[in-house]
Amino acid sequence: MEQSEIFKAAASETHLDQPAPFYERVKSMIKTNIHSGAWPVNYRVPSESELVSQFGYSRMTINRALRELTAEGLLVRMQGVGTFVAEVRGQSALLEINNIADEIASRGHRHHARVLELTQLHADAQQALAFNLPKGSRLFHSLICHYENGVPVMLEDRLVNALIVPDYLQQDFTRITPNAYLSSIAPIVEGEHIIEAVNVPRSECVYLEIDEHTPCLQVNRRTWTGRQDKKIVTSVRLVYPGSRYRLEGSMRK
Question: Could you tell me the pLDDT band of residue 12, with boundaries at 50, 70 and 90?
Fold first, then answer.
C-alpha cells in the first residue's frame, strides 16, 4: 500500500474529524498503523516534515505526538537517522498478580505460549524450604515461554505444590495459563514478590531470543491459598527481557 493510502486508511479508522487536540489525532493515526500491522517493528516512520505535509499541522504539534509515543514505548527516535516502530514492550502492574494472556489481550495483541517443560520432581532442600514442606515432597515443574505478537516477552519457571493441585500436569498450558488455572483451583490469599535485575543463562537467552548479556527483570513470587490453614501453592520465577517489558506501580498516602 502506498504511504498516502496508509495515511488515509488510518485517518478514517481514527475519525480525525472528531474533536480532539491535533497532537492526539496524530498519535491515534500512528497507533492505528502500528496496531494494524501496517507499520511493523523497525518500520521507519515518516519524518516530521512528511507528517506536517500529510496532516497540515505545525511541526510543534507533530513533534509533541512523536515525543509522547516515544515516551510510551511505541517509537524509538535515533538522532540523525529517523524514528522507528519499537519492539513490543508490554507492561505489568508491579504488585498485582495478573494473567499475562489477559494483559496482552487488553493491549489488542495476540498471546501464545510454548511449553518447554512439564514434569514432576521431588523437592531438594532449597525447594522444600520455599514451600515449608519436608525434603523429598512431590512438586510439579513447568517452564513456559509467553509471546506477544510472536515476540517472547516472559519466561515462566514455576513450581507447584502437588498436594494442593494434583492435576497440574494434565493441563494444556497452550490454551490456559498456569496463572488462570491455579487461580481457579486455589484462589490466592497472600503473595510475596522479590524483584531484581539479572543476566540469565544462555539456555534462557535462547528461549527469549535475546543476546547473552541483555539485562532482564526477574520477579520471584510465592503465593498462598486457604483462609484458615494457609499453604504455599506455587513458587514462580518470571523473567522479562528489559527491552520488551516494564513493571509499573503506584502508591497513595
Answer: very low
28 lies in the same domain as 81: yes
Grid cell digits, residue 161 = 505444590
Same domain? 111 vs 209: yes
Query: In total, how many domains does the chain have?
Result: 2
Sheet holding 138-148, edge to edge: 111-122, 138-148, 151-161, 231-241, 216-225, 188-198
Is residue 94 domain-shared with residue 149, that is, in the same domain?
yes
Residue carrying C-alpha cell 509515543: 69
Which residues face 45 on adjacent strands? 83
For CA atoms 97, 74, 31, 67, give the dihedral sign: positive
- Does 196 map to a domain? yes
Task: Give burial (CB, 10 Å; 0-12/13-18/19+) of 246.
Answer: middle
Residue-wise pLDDT tens digits, 190-211: 888 888 888 899 999 999 999 8
DSSP reduced 3-state for 179:
helix
Same domain for 124 and 38: no
Has residue 227 got a pLDDT over 90? no
Residues 127, 31 share a domain: no
According to DSSP, residue 169 is labeled G
> What's the whole-model pTM score?
0.63
Greatest Cα pair distance, the chain, in angstroms, is 71
Q: Find the domain containing 213 and state its range.
A: 90-248
* Of 113 and 5, more confident: 113
* Sequence-ordered list of residues with C-beta below 8 angstroms from that of 209, at least 6 positions apart, any chain: 151, 152
Residue 22 and residue 103 in one domain: no
Are 71 and 196 contained in the same domain? no
**C-alpha grid cell, residue 95:** 504488585
